[in-house]
Write a structure and sequence with these properties.
Blueprint lengths: L4 H32 L17 H5 L16 H8 L4 H15 L2 H9 L10 H8 L3 H7 L8 H4 L4 E2 L12 E2 L2 H7 L7 H4 L2 E3 L7 H15 L7 E5 L5 H13 L2 E5 L1 H6 L2 H17 L2 E6 L8 H12 L4 E5 L10 E4 L5 H13 L8 H8 L4 H14 L5 H11 L9 E2 L13 H15 L1 H7 L2 H5 L5 E7 L5 H12 L3 E5 H4 L6 H13 L5 E5 L14 H19 L3 E6 L7 H4 L4 E5 L4 H11 L11 H5 L5 H18 L5 H14 L6 H4 L3 H4 L2
Parallel strand pairs: 4-7, 4-8, 5-6, 6-7, 10-13, 10-14, 11-12, 12-13
Antiparallel strand pairs: 1-2, 3-5, 9-11
Length: 679
């Protein structure tokens, strides 16, 4: 590996300064050995450490800080300044590090102790070498108290049994610190396993302003470790603001794996916090913690509180709402990019890659709400598939980017139907077409024509699908998803509504927060589980039910995508709520002609079907969903008999369907098949 010239020069200077410091230590050891004296058999003979004559022993080499390097200070001096070490603490650090820099020192320590097993530095030896007055020795010994820098930052470790006197216990320095003194710096592997470098993101002017504000707050803290609570989502804005602040201050931003940290036991977390503090000192590291989405009271939340209270380093905590910390925490808000800013970010991300994307950016920013990180990821994913990124490839990559957020909260419905599959009246079909057109034309109406500024909030497109079960409500939602090339998620409102006050809003908040960036179609089924005629408030439960309905409607109106409510009983819904929905589409029970068309297309082209009596079948009082169920059951009856699907199979399946619906079977409807269909 080639080392840059300026670093190579500094390492040479650092090595010379370190050599000088070690030589001064050698001379002190020789003088100390002479003072100890000893008989002819004494092992206290360490003069072999120093080459030369008596004049050499009398002449001390210059101290490291007196050499005046041409560039930055040597590592030992710089570490002393960063950790605010006094002269004795710095001498003790060097005494402890010396055996790892030159193995001869271990032998010297053993000889001075008259014990080959005691080949290590001790506080007793340090006091004897560097402090003359007895009173000063008592005070100097405080440097190894746990709260002082040498131990608090893991610069020096104290081994041995706590019952052994501190002055005689073994002092040790780990490889990270000794390498730092030699001029080799890196992040300790124990810390590196829990952090990743914070990568650069696309930025907006507002993000830059937030980063500069955070940097100013840290700089004004007068060398005290500062915690900055960055409010906003983690997907670009808040992280980039933290990175900008660190760049301005010369810090190295590292993102903590919060789950991994929280999973450690208390002792390991305490040790890791200390090591991170040391890396803040040695490597100029700042820690970034993404606490967005972390629930209060969870293990991760408690771990964040612990970091705020104990971390001796600059800390950035990202959260969507202000983090309720006990200590002094500065708050900086980061704004989510506006639609216009998102368009700029898309163009920046695409500029570096071959693409044919043009007007599609406006449509994408209306459908998907992405910040910088997500935009960069989408462009990168699209570029991996084609040499030239197309608008369609970008659209599909956007759908994939958000495909997993809702998986735990809603059921994804793969769309299977097109416009030709649904049998509805012209009025219903026309309304569905208008609904699709509003989703497609939002960019023109809201942005180009300026209606977005007039509307402010409430730009979401909302609809109610009302009709009996099996009349085509879910099929219509699938057709819209297929036509608009969007994902469709079904949320069962009966499962979301809770009898406990406040839980329904919490459940709905989780759904909308997960869907917010996706642009997916949200299909809320069983709406009458939440909606009802709530105008008459008789008790607190009715009052909270109204609040729940209002919350759902407000989130639907603010949702960037299409949100659909479905109900079997429109009459149960309060007209005041219906007025807040942009579309109310009634799916009537199919008439005879409609049922005939459903029967004509319910069997797949490849199915073996004998001639069916469509006039008789269309007279059966059934919905499209019931007809589909009959067709499937008839197919299994025919397959079991190893014959094509015939009227006999269909009518037997129809009789079973009537039984499920508790409907009587009559000869007027079943005709010649009545006797066969009777139970």
């Amino acid at each position: 590996m080639n080392i840059p010239d300026h670093l190579s020069d500094w390492r040479t200077e650092n090595a010379e300064c370190l050599r000088s410091a070690l030589q001064r230590l050698r001379l002190r050891l020789v003088r100390h050995a002479a003072l100890l004296g000893g008989g002819a058999g004494s092992q206290r003979r360490v003069d072999w450490l120093v080459a030369g004559n008596a004049e050499d022993l009398a002449r001390m080499p210059p101290a490291a800080e007196e050499i005046e390097p041409a560039r930055e200070p040597p590592a030992l001096q710089r570490l002393g300044e960063l950790a605010d070490l006094n002269d004795f603490e710095r001498d003790l650090l060097l005494l402890t590090a010396a055996p790892s820099l030159d193995g001869a020192f271990a032998r010297a320590y053993a000889e001075l102790a008259d014990d080959p097993r005691r080949d290590y530095a001790t506080l007793h030896l340090a006091l004897a070498l560097f402090v003359e007055e007895a009173t000063e020795r008592l005070l100097a010994a405080d440097c190894l108290m746990p709260q002082h820098a040498l131990r608090a930052l893991c610069l020096v470790d104290v081994d041995g049994d706590d019952r052994e006197p501190l002055v005689t216990r073994r002092l040790r320095i780990d490889e990270r610190v000794s390498n730092y003194l030699r001029g080799v710096s890196y992040i300790d592997e124990r810390v590196a396993s829990c952090v990743t470098p914070l990568r650069e993101s696309l930025r907006t002017d507002s993000v830059t302003e937030a980063g500069c504000e955070a940097a100013a707050l840290i700089a004004a803290a007068a060398n005290q470790w500062t915690t900055i609570n960055l409010l906003g989502e983690a997907d670009g804005a808040a992280r980039e603001a933290a990175r900008i602040a660190c760049v301005d201050l010369g810090y190295l931003p590292q993102l903590l794996d919060l789950r991994r940290f929280a999973a450690l036991d208390a002792a390991h977390r305490e040790k890791l916090v200390t090591l991170i503090g040391r890396e803040a000192l040695l490597a100029g590291m700042a820690l970034v913690v993404d606490a967005s989405g972390v629930e209060r009271g969870s293990e991760s939340a408690l771990a964040v509180d612990e970091l705020i209270a104990t971390l001796p380093a600059t800390l950035f905590v990202i959260s969507q709402e202000r983090w309720p910390a006990a200590g002094d925490v500065a708050v900086v808000r980061t704004a989510r990019p506006t639609r216009a800013e998102q368009q700029t970010l898309w163009r920046k991300a695409l500029a570096a890659r071959p693409n044919s994307v043009n007007g599609e950016i406006d449509t994408i920013t209306q459908q998907f709400d992405f910040a910088a990180d997500a935009i960069a990821d989408v462009v990168s994913r699209a570029a991996q598939r084609d040499d030239t990124i197309t608008g369609r490839a970008l659209w599909n990559a956007c759908r994939e980017q958000t495909g997993t957020a809702l998986e735990d909260l809603a059921c994804r419905i793969p769309p299977r139907y097109g416009w030709d599959d649904i049998v509805v009246g012209d009025e219903v079909r026309s309304q569905l077409r208008e609904l699709a057109a509003q989703v497609q034309q939002r960019a023109r109406v809201y942005e180009s024509w300026g209606f977005g500024a007039k509307l402010g909030r409430g730009r979401g497109i909302t609809a109610l699908f009302a009709g009996a079960s099996g009349t085509g409500k879910t099929m219509a939602a699938e057709i819209l998803a297929m036509h608009l090339e969007l994902d469709l998620y079904r949320i069962d409102l009966a499962g979301v509504v809770s009898k406990y006050i406040g839980d329904t809003e919490k459940n709905l908040r989780r759904v909308f927060d997960a869907a917010e960036r996706s642009g997916a179609i949200l299909f809320f089924d069983e709406a009458d589980a939440l909606f009802g005629k709530r105008t008459d408030v008789r008790d607190s439960h009715d009052r909270y039910a109204n609040l729940e309905v209002n919350y759902l409607l407000q989130r639907m109106e603010d949702y960037a995508g299409l949100a659909i409510l479905a109900t079997n009983r429109r009459s149960a819904l309060d007209p005041a709520f219906l007025r807040r929905l942009r579309f109310v589409i009634d799916f009537p029970f199919p008439a005879t002609d409609d049922r005939r068309r459903i029967w004509e297309r319910v069997f797949p082209p490849q199915a073996e079907v004998e001639r069916l009596e469509l006039s008789l079948l269309s007279g059966l009082d059934l919905s499209g969903g019931n007809i589909k169920s009959i067709a499937v059951n008839a197919a299994f009856l025919a397959a079991s008999a190893d014959t094509p699907i015939a009227m006999s199979h269909v009518m037997r399946a129809a009789a079973r369907e009537y039984g499920k619906l508790a409907k009587p079977i009559g000869p007027a409807e079943f005709g010649a098949y009545y006797e066969m269909a009777r139970p």
